[in-house]
User: What shape does this take?
Amino acid sequence: MIEINVEKMACKDVKLLKPCAMLSGYPYGTVFQQWFEGKPSNTFFVTCGVGEKRVLTFWWDDEDLVYKVSTDNKKSLKEYVPSVRVFEINAEINIKLSYSTLFNK
Assistant: This one.
């Protein structure tokens, strides 16, 4: 289960960035919110990576009604449509991992 808690913030003076900007000059663990067509969405990014700059992408799955995780690198971030921007936010992302297989009894 993934839970995302975002601190309330004023949306005036929001400096929106192109998605690739997340890979330049931000420390690992910085959280960004995606903005689509000028409005905040329920997709979030966290800077991460080992030896290569990547971001974790937490996106809402409308069918399963849960957050899912994928990764993006510079190439895939450049493929976002021009109306997608990101904004650095104060947020806490909690992840509860569970493991089960058909072999567990």
Notes: DSSP finds one helix and seven strands in the chain. The CA atoms of residues 61 and 105 lie 30 Å apart.
